[in-house]
Amino acid sequence: MKKILHVAETIKGGVATVIRTISAAPEDGRYELVYLVPLDQKKELHGIDPQQIRTFARSGRNVPSLLRFAWQLARVLLKEKPDVVHLHSTFSGVIGRCVCVLLRPWRKPKIVYCPHAFSFLMESSPIKQKVYAGIERVLQKVTDKIICVSQFELDKAAKFGIERQRMTLIYNGIDHKDEERKVVDPAPIHLLFVGRLDYQKGFDVLLKAYTEAQRSDLRLTVVGSAVNEDVVECPPLDGVEYLPWVTPTEVHALYRKADALIVPSRWEGFAMVPLEGMALGLPVIASDCTSLPELVTHGVSGYVFPAGDHQALAERLKKIQKPALSALGIEGRRIVRERFSAALMIRQTYDVYSAPSY
To answer: What gap in Å lies between CA 204 and CA 297, rounded to an integer?
Structure first.
């Protein structure tokens, strides 16, 4: 039996969805799964046996929390003796690989790393991008396989010096939804945002665009909270409702009620939220950042606008109408069914686990 250890410094949002999805191991009894996640985010792994979840205390992205994460990872590696360590996101990837290197005299698991968007793809200065890329180039030498979740990410990583033979492309996937979207009244038009209220996700772009659109028949529901930033302003606006993180069942209900999903991100790995919405026939209005155009095709499954451009998004919101949105949603669901299935994602991920080490 092969033991897989999933490691994440934070899992709020899409990372938790990805981990839950690939936890559906092939039904041949050859895999045992263990997890290391923040204590206060343990509930994000609902449906997974709590006895398999190890935790550490995280109070934010600060030095004490990162040290506790590193210490607990070392303990779990020595105790659980995993065959494969699957590191999720940048901070887990950097700290996790350093810990694995330090423990190599005692444990030498296969290291699989999925950045869910490399740090050098973030909106930052050229100097910072070079530093981030330099760290990744060094650490790739101790990594057996790097999973990229979009072609954009893979090609960009190669330009920054990550060896193509160490990388593989595995699109995020989702289970198909056969249910039909319910018929809703002609007005108002319900918009939905689901995710972290952080700079990366473009929440500020959405609020500016919604205000500038000045349509009395628009309603906006915002679901989520800030994770990597201390304070994010949620100003009271007519027609805007703010909700905290809710359960998947509640999100599912919100998808079905909405007429369009807004994804105004400044950068992404490969976002799960638009996949979830499209699987239910919900059209997506997304920025053109990084990987999103690989999922959302303008005028086919939704609309695309320049990342960070709130005026362009406002112009789109001024024009949207329910009949056109409904048609886009139908096509989006077909695209998800054909190209982004959970079964394919799971099979490809476990093929990586089973392949010989680099």
So the answer is: 23
Measured distance CA(191)–CA(6) in Å, rounded: 34
d(CA 263, CA 268): 10
CA-based radius of gyration for the chain? 20
* Alpha-carbon gap, residue 147 to 171, rounded angstroms: 9
Residue for token pair 């209220």: 197
List the chain residues with pLDDT less than 70. 27-29, 123, 177-186, 227-231, 358
Q: What angle, rounded to 10 degrees, do the helices at 14-22 and 272-279 form? A: 70
Contacts of 327 (CB under 8 A, 6+ apart): none
To the nearest whole percent, how much of the chain has pLDDT over 70? 94
- Determine the Cα–Cα distance for residues 202 and 330; give it in Å rounded to an integer: 26
Read off the pLDDT of residues 188-207 as tens digits, 9 standing for 90 and up.
999 999 988 888 899 999 99
Distance CA 26, CA 82 (A): 18
State which amino acid sits at residue 345: M
The length of the chain in residues reads 358
What tokens appear for 304 in the block? 């695309």
Place of tokens 């999925």: 114
DSSP state at residue 195? S
CB 255 within 8 A of CB 276: yes
Burial class (CB in 10 A: 0-12, 13-18, 19+), 235: exposed
**Confidence (pLDDT) at 30:** 87
The answer to whether 207 and 237 have CB atoms below 8 angstroms apart is: yes
Residue pair 33/25 in contact by the 8 Å Cβ criterion: yes
Quote the percentage of the chain above a pLDDT of 90: 66
Quote the CA–CA distance of 315 and 218 in Å, as a whole number: 13
Cβ atoms of residues 45 and 53 within 8 Å: yes
